[in-house]
Amino acid sequence: MEWIKKVKQMKGINEFNEDFQLKIGGSQILETNTFLSDMDILCILPKYINIYDFNGEDGIYGLYGRLLLNKRINVNIVQTSRILMLELKIDGIDVDLIYAQIPFKNVTNNFDIMNNEIIEENKNKQSILALAGFRSTIKIKEMNLNQKLFISLMRFLKIWAKNRLIYSNIAGYLSGSSLAIMSAKICIIYPNASLPIAIKQFFIFYKLWGWPQPILLNELENEFKKAKEIVEPWKWINKEDNSEFENDSETDSNDELEEEKEGNDGKQMSIITSGFPEQNTTFNVNKFTFKRIIKEIERGT
Question: Is 241 in contact with 252 (CB distance < 8 Å)?
Answer without folding.
Answer: no
